[in-house]
Specification:
The complex is a heterodimer of chains A (458) and B (247).
Chain A: H1 4-11, H2 15-37, H3 42-58, H4 60-73, E1 77-81, H5 84-98, E2 102-105, H6 109-113, H7 116-122, E3 126-129, H8 132-139, H9 156-167, H10 176-193, E4 196-199, E5 203-205, E6 210-215, H11 219-226, E7 229-235, E8 239-240, H12 246-258, E9 265-269, E10 277-283, H13 287-292, H14 307-311, H15 313-316, H16 329-339, H17 356-360, H18 367-380, H19 386-400, H20 402-418, H21 429-433, H22 444-451
Parallel strand pairs in A: 1-10, 2-3, 2-4, 4-7, 5-8, 7-10
Antiparallel strand pairs in A: 5-6, 6-9
Chain B: E1 2-5, H1 9-14, H2 16-28, E2 32-34, H3 44-48, H4 56-66, E3 71-74, H5 77-86, H6 93-102, E4 103-105, H7 106-113, E5 126-130, H8 133-138, H9 154-159, E6 166-168, H10 183-186, H11 188-204, E7 209-212, H12 215-227, E8 233-236, H13 237-241, H14 243-246
Parallel strand pairs in B: 1-2, 1-3, 3-4, 5-6, 5-7, 7-8
Classes of the chains: A alpha/beta (458), B alpha/beta (247).
């Protein structure tokens, strides 16, 4: 079974690369800090965004219906998918109806979550990711390691090698401009040849029925404008009530994500161009279940900025793939157990609960508190293993009884002093790269009894 | 002022000097301090591992030891935060609620309750401060680097009163050290890497000591420092603030 701890251990075999990965993402965190700290009302903006999202989640049924009504009035086809399989089927049917063979995609974490690419490719459709980072990982048959920076785990040398193999660039080339130009030429061909463009959705406005897609590369626009059919796929939590609310979210999104004031392209799609077709697929896939979990519902406020990834000291030193889920990092660790508790039981433990994630979150999700709460549920549901449960019961028995605690303490220290190899051995994970603390002869309590426990009244 | 001294279990067992320094410091500042003899643990090791259902014994024991004080003070932000957030006692809910309000981490007790402005302490050394996460973000002992807020540091303010002490700021002022309770063994690789990175920043600053308010983080860093045979030593902030007595 894949676990974060095991994957992270592998990732840490190359320490220089871990340092590079950590520094690269810390650089993004610092850019975010500079942006956030230069906006005096930053904390109020976060609060405002949080309130809008809370309000929307509490009235999601109404806003979804309103959105559908407006979108239909705009001439957009609206589809509802209860789960990933339905979503994939809906997309495939639209493609099939037109007899299309080639589609281009801009970034959509939802389609990653639904494993749409594998499904469509299995049906004989050519699916090309057009976000540069996503195209790089697609060529390498890897999932993205980060929701905003999909290829952040790769160095330019790695990209050079991938492009050499797949795009015929010179062997050993690592000049970013040269490699980007090769990708640009390659993707232009794909854009022109595509029958259909699929995009994600950053915000869906209930008031207007319009959607907003934020990219830095303009690839969503290029795809959607060139193709005759545009499908936009969105989780149902992407709804915001009013167009005016975008003024809050667009200010927060790019600043939190990459430390830019705004994404290069914030594209508003309201209705299909004349003679063209536009579809929106609204996907549940576990979201209503999460909405019903009181302690976790507000994880649905997430706007996928990945600020929590960039600040997470564990993510930076374990890499996105170690989370073995489409959305990695702290937010992924509270979203994934909702979908499959057994498979993702390790993720809420892949954290020190340092709390930095909750502090950077632009919509104020209490991420680290939810990690703690997931731990409680996972242990109660029996997903943390019998060895751990037994150990915890023993620990609890010792620490609940002062006499047993003192006996265990003094005996334990005696053994550590006289038989240090009991703990200082290769079976003890602490000792692998750390020395054990030196056990003192007497506890604080022993000292206190000798030095302070005077007759009453002193 | 009746102060109950809470000495977390691992400090009691492995770092008695931290408890002694805390006690002496509080006494020096005029507090009437008692160490309730039947205290054990706050229950955090179980709760953070997902077993908060197993903390009832610790909770009841904590309440029976600490319900007779004006304030409860502990040299650990992490244990204090756990009590503040999670102490429950179904038999004595009002006592538990009272304790959650009365408990303070040492630095915040000195700055917010005793409001001290000077200390007769002396520690002529170059020192790096490790801001432990639960004190930092949970108890808000310092301004947090992620937030847009005025800069302050309660431990920094206290250390500025110590004669001869030269405080050197680490490049990332509030990054986690990777201890994280059972995280330190279940996620050993990342935990140690995080600790090494914290140490590296302090080593580049050529500090003689790394101090902080949580012995758990310091114990983790100490384990790595000793394995590296580094000359840098760890010292709890209570030991520095009390240094004129113990030196």
């Amino acid at each position: 079974m894949i676990t974060h701890a095991k994957e992270a251990e592998k990732f840490n075999k190359d320490e220089a690369r871990v340092d590079w990965h950590d520094d690269t993402l810390w650089f993004v965190r610092q850019k975010r800090d500079r942006m956030a700290h230069n906006i005096p009302e930053w904390e109020q903006l976060r609060e405002k965004a949080s309130q809008i999202k809370n309000h929307t989640l509490s009235n999601l049924d109404q806003y979804l219906v309103q959105f559908e009504k407006q979108a239909l009035a705009n001439g957009v086809h609206v589809h509802w998918a209860a789960n990933a399989a339905e979503h994939n089927q809906i997309v495939f049917q639209i493609i099939q109806k037109h007899g299309f063979r080639k589609i281009v995609k801009s970034k959509s974490m939802l389609t990653e979550e639904c494993h749409l690419n594998e499904f469509l490719i299995g049906q004989g459709i050519e699916v090309i990711d057009t976000d540069l980072g996503e195209r790089i990982v697609q060529l390498r048959h890897e999932p993205p390691s980060h929701i905003v920076l999909p290829a952040i785990h790769l160095k330019k040398e790695d990209v050079g090698e991938t492009f050499h193999q797949h795009l015929g660039t010179e062997k050993g080339a690592k000049d970013p401009q040269y490699l980007t130009e090769a990708a640009r030429q390659h993707l232009r061909e794909k854009f022109i040849a595509a029958d259909l463009a699929l995009t994600g959705v950053n915000f869906a406005v209930a008031e207007t029925g319009g959607i907003v897609v934020c990219t830095n590369e303009g690839n969503a626009d290029m795809g959607a404008h060139l193709a005759n059919v545009h499908i936009a796929c969105m989780g149902i939590e992407k709804i915001i009530p009013r167009q005016a609310d975008l003024s809050v979210f667009l200010r927060l999104l790019a600043r939190s994500a990459t430390g830019q004031p705004i994404t290069t392209y914030s594209s508003h799609f309201l209705r299909p161009a004349s003679g063209k077709e536009m579809h929106i697929v609204l996907v549940d896939n576990g979201r209503t279940e999460q909405l019903a979990r009181t302690d976790f519902r507000n994880s649905l406020k997430c706007i996928r900025c990945a600020a929590c990834f960039n600040t997470c000291p564990v993510y930076r030193r374990s890499g996105g793939h170690s989370y073995h889920t489409a959305v990695a990092g702290p937010i992924g660790s509270i979203l994934a157990p909702n979908i499959d508790m057994r498979k993702y039981a390790d993720l809420p433990f892949a954290s020190t609960l340092c709390g930095s994630c909750s502090n950077v979150c632009p919509v104020k999700i209490d991420i680290h508190d939810q990690l703690w709460k997931w731990r409680q549920i996972l242990s109660q549901e029996g997903h943390t293993g019998t060895a751990k449960a037994t150990g915890m019961k023993l620990m609890s028995a010792v620490l609940s009884n002062p006499d047993i605690y003192r006996f265990a303490g003094s005996t334990g220290r005696w053994f550590l002093r006289h038989v240090p190899s009991l703990a200082s051995n290769s079976l003890n994970p602490w000792f692998k790269q750390r020395e054990m603390p030196e056990p003192p002869k007497e506890s604080f309590r022993d000292w206190y009894l000798k030095n302070r426990k005077k007759p009453k009244g002193e | 002022m009746k102060v109950g001294l809470f000495v977390p279990c691992y400090i009691d067992q492995f770092y008695p000097n931290v408890g002694i320094a805390t006690l002496e410091l509080l006494e020096k500042l005029g507090c009437n301090v008692t160490f309730p003899l039947n205290q054990t643990c706050c229950g955090q090791p179980m709760a953070n591992s997902g077993y908060s259902n197993l903390t009832k014994g610790c909770d009841a024991n904590f309440v029976s030891n600490f319900s007779e004080f004006d304030y409860i003070v502990a040299p650990s932000g992490s244990c204090v935060l756990h009590i503040k957030e999670h102490l429950k006692d179904t038999d004595h809910p009002e006592k538990a609620a009272q304790i959650r309000k009365q408990i303070f981490e040492l630095c915040e007790f000195l700055t917010d309750i005793l409001k001290i402005n000077s200390l007769p302490a002396s520690f002529p050394h170059r020192v790096g401060l490790h801001a432990s996460c639960h004190g930092q973000r949970g108890l808000h002992l310092s301004s947090m680097s992620e937030r847009n807020e005025p800069s302050f540091s309660k431990p920094g303010h206290l250390l500025s009163m110590v004669k001869g002490l030269e405080l050197v700021q680490a490049e990332r002022p509030d990054e986690c050290c990777g201890f994280g309770g059972t995280f330190c063994v279940f996620e050993e690789a990342v935990s140690v890497k995080m600790g090494k990175d914290r140490i590296e920043e302090h080593a580049q600053n050529q500090v003689e000591y790394i101090t902080g308010g949580d012995t758990s983080c310091l114990m983790h860093l100490e384990g790595i420092l000793k394995r590296q045979q580094s000359p840098i030593r760890i010292i709890h902030i209570a030991e520095i603030l009390n240094s004129s007595i113990s030196n």
